[in-house]
Amino acid sequence: MERVIELIIDEENEISGIEAISVVENPAIEEDFIALKKLSVELAEVDAEKRILMGAALIPDKKILRRSEDEDYYIYFSQETVRKAAELFLMRGRQNNSTLEHNEILQGMSVVESWIVEDLKHDKSKKYGFDVPVGTWMVSMKVNNDDVWQSVKAGDLKGFSIEGFFADNTERPKEQIKEEVEAEELLSEIYDELEAAEYNLSTYNDYPRGVYETARKVLRWVDNNGWGSCGTPIGKRRASQLASRSRLTVTTIKRMRSYLLRHKGDLQYSTSYEDGCGKLMYDAWGGSAGLRWAESKLKELGEIEAAEIGPKGGVKGSPKAPASDTPNKNPKGKGTAKGDASGKTGAKVSEKDRAALKKKADEFNDRYKEKLGYGVTVGMLASVFQRGLGAFNTSHSPKVKSASQWAHARVNAFMYLVKNGRPENSKYTTDYDLLPSKHPKSTDA
Q1: Do 262 and 292 reside in the same domain of the chain?
Q2: Which pLDDT score, from 0 to 100, does residue 153 have?
Q3: Domain boundary residue, one of 168, 189, 223
Q4: Domain stop point among 142, 168, 194
Q5: Which stretches within 13-129 are classed as H helix?
Q6: What is the pLDDT of residue 8?
Q7: Is residue 231 located within the same domain as residue 89?
Q8: Is residue 313 part of a domain?
Q9: Three-state secondary structure along 31-53?
Q10: Which of 177, 308, 337, 443 is positioned for an S-S bond with 389, CB 3.0–4.6 A?
Q11: How many CA atoms lie within 13 A of 397 on its CB side?
Q12: How far apart are alpha carbons 82 and 18 in whole angstroms?
């Protein structure tokens, strides 16, 4: 007998609800969005591309298959939960929270329309060819992100998928579920720090005074008033780390940036520590100064792209690298980045970089190897890395400052290819020969 679980929103839990809307290739609710290019209005017809995507974010009472190590089961959302989720999404200011395939935080994406289908015959969704039931949460999203729009036009992204936190409506106490999730997150973070110490990976505490003073302000307030129902163990730990100027791993800095980006909207309805949990927990993670530092540090390390926002809110395109057969006039990687982009050997991989590659391989295999039926090896990633080192001397983006940074970016692109079965950039085909033999694009397949 199949197991079906209703997911609900626990309004007493500050983190319950939808955090972001992700654009994905395979939406779990099986409803593709449509790209609105020509939109008729009462007084004029707009011919230019408006870059608006319309689609279903949540469909009530639709069973969605989920797999775990123990069993396969189905989840669903009632009409009441769908409506509540849509309302909280807007009330908490999450309109600009968007991700790509639930992995990469996106800029230049905004929900500009949100509604619940109430009339099958006259609803706007019907006009654009949707056949969804009453109670469906529909959204229209403005896309000022050139890369996302090109992926939509190419057919690589086909629908919306929500991400957030829900409780299940079973006999298991909701508090127990919350505690299990929090414990798993805390253990993951502690594991990252132990691994950084074991492999002598870099950690950082060069955040400015505004970051640690903000965290200290939170802890002084908590000493007098307590945390109340606010915060998870991770959030409380973050405040203590920042207040004491502890060294943070790159993974922790990424978590810090992700949290602060996702929860910026909380400051619209929580303007003081007495006014709910939003402002208190935002500052516990370093506040606005923490977000600025985290983004700056990750850009410096080559972990995120240094995107620029244009005057209309879109992401400016990065300067193009020269053609692949153009010699680099200033080969900063000379010596360590010798070789070219086609070989598997010839460039030296430092102990520090090899340790980072081992960490990436271990994390990837823990998360995806069983599901995919194949994983990655350190040797495989090292070969990709070596090609990246060699390629740096031939051609690279002007924003990339080191051969190692360029090589790690290539490794990240390779891991995306392994996980998703296709490259994020359709032009990236040069490492297919290094893919696991069972991968659909492997040259050995």
Answers
A1: yes
A2: 80
A3: 168
A4: 168
A5: 79-91, 124-127
A6: 63
A7: no
A8: no
A9: CECEEECCEECCCCEECCCCCEE
A10: 337
A11: 14
A12: 10
Structure tokens of 42? 């009462």
Please give the residue range of the domain that contains residue 268: 174-300
- 143 located within any domain: yes
Whether 163 and 192 share a structural domain: no
Q: Are residues 38 and 59 in the same domain?
A: yes
Round to whole Å and give the CA distance between 216 and 412: 36
- Number of domains the chain contains: 3
Is 258 found in the same domain as 239?
A: yes
Q: Which two structure tokens, joined as six digits, stand for 281?
A: 């927990």
Q: Are residues 144 and 199 in the same domain?
A: no
Alpha-carbon distances, residue 430 vs 378, 381, 414, 423 (angstroms): 18, 14, 10, 11
d(Cα 434, Cα 377) in Å, to the nearest integer? 10
b/e burial code for range 325-353 (CB count within 10 A of at least 16 → b): eeebeeebbeebbbbebeeeeebebeeeb
CA angle, corner 66, sides to 30 and 158, nearest 5?
25
Report the distance separating Cα 158 and Cα 328, nearest Å. 38
Question: Are 161 and 227 contained in the same domain?
Answer: no
Largest CA distance in the chain: 68
Question: Which tokens hold the place of 3?
Answer: 């197991």
Strands 98-100 and 17-24: parallel
Please list the rounded mean pLDDT of every run of 10 residues in the chain (445 residues). Answer: 63 55 60 38 35 86 70 79 86 81 78 90 85 90 86 79 63 46 55 58 88 95 90 86 90 87 82 90 95 90 57 40 44 42 58 87 88 90 87 58 78 87 79 90 76
